[in-house]
Amino acid sequence: MIGTHTSTTGVMAFMKYVTPYSGKEVPEGWLESYESVAKAEKWSASQMLECVGLKLKKKAKDWFSNLTGEAKPKSWERFLTLFLEEFSTEDHQNTIAKLYLGRQKKGEKLKSYFTRYYKCLKKHETAVKREVAIRYASSGRQAQQASYS
Fold first, then answer.
1. CA-based nearest residue to 60, from 100, 13, 18
2. Cα separations (Å) of 148 from 79, 141, 142?
3. CA distance 137 to 146
4. What are the start-end ranges of the H helices in 18-74?
5. pTM, full prediction
6. What was the pLDDT predicted at 65?
7. Among 118, 104, 115, which Cα is nearest to 148's?
8. How crowded is residue 145: how many other Cβ atoms within 10 Å of its Cβ?
9. Mean pLDDT for each consecutive 10-residue tract of the chain (149 residues)?
């Protein structure tokens, strides 16, 4: 069921432009398409999460339907992580893990952190879309900032 903050008209336009994802397609490409259309409709991250199930089918729909309780993502960022872990190739999953686990070291300058992160990304840039890598770099920085507070 679609929540009250996502209009039926916006969902209908959205459905027209995004192809369903079954689990066989390249997950990063599908996510890029989904996010592009959602942004064009001026959807928030919570709206994207709310409606993503409408565009999943077969294996992907089964996977998403089985995410219940604590396993169910409560943010778009968490959905992205779970989705890519589930549907990416093993090489991509290893790359994402490296990028996700990369954290700014205590006392490390921001420029040094991003240089180190960028070197890792350059080694694997065919496996990871730049937007996904930027999210992980930002989360590593934010996590480190929180631990300094």
1. 18
2. 27, 11, 10
3. 14
4. 27-40, 45-51, 58-65
5. 0.60
6. 94
7. 104
8. 11
9. 48 73 88 87 90 93 93 90 83 68 81 81 59 60 45
